[in-house]
Amino acid sequence: MYNWNIIGHKKQLELIEHDIASKTLAHAYLFAGPSHIGKFSIAKMFVNILQCTNNLCHTCSTCKQIQAGSHPDTVVIDDEGTSIKIEQIRDVIGKLHMTKHASYKILLINGAHKLTPEAANCLLKTLEEPPPNTIIIMTTNNVRDMLPTIISRVRLLKFSAYSQKFLKEKLRALYPNTDDKTLDQVCSLSLGKSGRAIKLLEDSDLLASYRTMYNMLCEFLEDKPIYRKFGLVEEIVSDERDNKEFLDIFTHLVRSRLHKELTTNSNSPKKDHYLSLLSSLEKTRTLLKRNINARLALESLALKTSQ
Ligand SMILES: [Zn+2]
Questions:
Q1: Edge-to-edge strand list for the sheet holding 155-158
Q2: How far is the CA of 29 from the centre of ligand 1 (A)?
Q3: Of 117, 237, 277, 306, whose CB has the highest number of CB atoms within 10 Å?
């Protein structure tokens, strides 16, 4: 019905369009799913549809202001901070009660799992008794960390990452001049996340650094002396890169190797090695979450790759 400018997520977009067309909008939505797959872009487009009087034209001042985050009746919390505090919520709730000029007052929260318990409880009151024509749209990549009382008061839409095949087809259409090998690499490195895939294709330095990491991971799976692997750990630890991302891509690589082994030779001796490596990767992930020294955790993982 609308020109969303979004890759995929057809089912979720249809659900939103259905709510709009049937005038059954919820007063609060929560978009949950992995990061970098376009949840916040969809949330902003949703706001555009609700506020633009021109059927989501992308060109009127309302459409432009919403995309720029400066629309007076659309209040946005979208910052890099690790938590969303009660003062921020009090401030935006105050704004929701002000006179509006557009069709709705809308509160958009990117990363709602970052709400502190106090902030979440403060928001809860507004979720229970929202001012008229107010809609709250939140996104999260960690729904498990959210208060059940919040989740029970929103319409939950679940999003997932794309299959490699689907993403590759879409990227090929968007970037017709990019060669097949690069598209394959970008699809693997982005783990099916369109936002990250597009970033990699737009930023050649970023792609180069991801490629280096990927090659490093391939080395981990080769029969290299342990001092060499410890050297790689050193590089990873000294790099500012997020360890979680490193583990995600490593897990993806081991899974695809395992898949290959199983499809070519079901009795492959490497099968057990990859399976045990996947369980070591999970353990490392848990250790890092508990703030165990990253070097120690990764060195112990490196030892596992050599067994
Ligand atoms: Zn417009």
A1: 74-77, 105-110, 134-140, 28-32, 155-158
A2: 22
A3: 277
